[in-house]
Design a protein that fits this description.
By secondary structure, the protein is an alpha+beta fold. The chain is about 35% helix and about 15% strand. Helix 4 runs antiparallel to helix 11. The protein starts with 13 loop residues before the first helix and ends with a helix. Keywords: Membrane, Transmembrane, Transmembrane helix. Belongs to the CDC50/LEM3 family. InterPro entries: CDC50/LEM3_fam (IPR005045).
């Protein structure tokens, strides 16, 4: 006779049960999957484990990787600000000196080149093709200007950064020519008389077309017009077999015309103009004079005042400028370095005075946030 004894099992505590399950899961994770993984290993080859990568991943997730934790003591902070001032101020002075060494001659001619009878109606003057636009200007050289001397034209109040203006062009057409027909972004200068325009768009249509020539006394100064555009633009953005087509042939004429026998990659005036400016006042390179200009030289500028800036209240200016190792004349970089360096020295001095007046011992636990109430009491 078999006697069955029933033993009542004490119900498990739910909290302890969850803890046991958590320990089992952690154990399975550390062992690579627990018992299921060992059973599966009898049928398949064990996968190689990259312990270095696993350790690095575990250290990253547990935030136990070694890290640099500098202690920003008053000495370090004050010393850092003093060092910034000692470095930035000399760099700013050197940059400012390089900018001041650049010699510039600037001449605004858009008002002076308007005949007296049209001073009150400049728009009528610029739109009347029967009136000569020729004009002579005289520039005196105040300081010796070493070659190369860069010739810029400067326009003010001309918003080349306007969204609709910037988008009115076709990069693919500039590279492939008539083989690319999707020029809807060029409206309203995409086609004329049912034929496509190359180059299309408002940017090309408004091409600057004032011209300049220079002479010193009776001797003409040669102006180098090659290599004024970026080489990357000439080689990769404008086609070597793309020629202007149907350009400025409508009734609504914009700026300059283009030579239909020269490919776009060689028309550097257009390439320079098509790189739109970010601000309403900008300069663009026209050419270079490869001769030195001596002090007190009188330069005669023969120009054609063709470009219409009068309709929108813009201005035109001719600029002759040398360059330095830092580029053209621009004092912003030097002034910015001097300002940052001076501010750093001032902050360092203020911190130093505060530290001397109220020194704070290192490692004082009374300054922790939890103990501030005790201090105030």
């Amino acid at each position: 006779m078999v006697t069955t004894i029933l033993v009542a099992k004490k119900p498990e505590n739910s909290k302890s049960k969850k803890q046991d399950i958590g320990r089992e899961l952690i154990s399975m994770d550390l062992d690579g999957g627990g018992g299921g993984g060992s059973a599966a290993s009898t049928d398949h080859q064990p996968m190689p484990v990259n312990h270095g990568r696993s350790n690095a991943l575990q250290q990253f997730t547990q935030q136990t990787l070694p890290a640099c934790k500098p202690v920003l003591t008053p000495a370090w902070v004050i010393g850092t600000f003093f060092m910034m001032g000692a470095v930035f101020i000399p760099v700013g002075l050197i940059s400012l000196h390089a900018s001041q060494s650049v010699n510039e001659i600037m001449d605004r001619y858009d008002i002076e080149c308007v005949p007296d009878g049209f001073k009150s109606n400049r728009v009528a003057y610029i739109k009347n093709a029967s009136i000569s636009k020729s004009c002579n200007r005289y520039l005196k050289v105040d300081k010796h200007m070493k070659a190369p001397i860069y010739i810029y034209y400067q326009l003010d109040n001309f918003y080349q950064n306007h969204r609709r203006y910037v988008k009115s062009r076709s990069e693919d057409q500039l590279l492939h020519g008539l083989g690319y027909n999707k020029t809807s972004t060029c409206e309203p200068q995409a086609s004329e008389n049912g034929l496509p325009i190359v180059p299309c768009g408002l940017v090309a249509w408004s091409l600057f077309n004032d011209t300049y020539s220079f002479s010193r006394g009776t001797k003409k100064l040669d102006v180098e017009r090659k290599n004024i555009a970026w080489k990357s633009d000439r080689d990769h953005k404008y086609g070597k077999h793309v020629y202007p087509f149907n350009f400025q042939n409508g009734s609504f004429i914009g700026g300059g015309k283009l030579d239909t026998t020269i490919p776009l990659s060689n028309q550097e005036d257009l390439i320079v103009w098509m790189r739109t400016a970010a601000f309403p006042s900008f300069r663009k390179l026209y050419g270079r004079i490869e001769e030195d200009l001596e002090e007190d030289d009188l330069i005669v500028v023969h120009l054609m005042n063709n470009y219409n800036t009068y309709s929108f209240g813009g201005t035109k200016m001719l600029v002759l400028s040398t360059s330095s190792w830092l580029g053209g004349k621009n004092s912003f970089l030097g002034v910015a370095y001097i300002f940052v360096g001076s501010s750093s020295l001032l902050i360092a001095l203020i911190f130093l005075l505060l530290h001397v007046k109220n020194p704070r011992p290192y490692g004082d636990m009374m300054y922790l946030s939890g103990n501030r109430k005790d201090i105030s009491s």
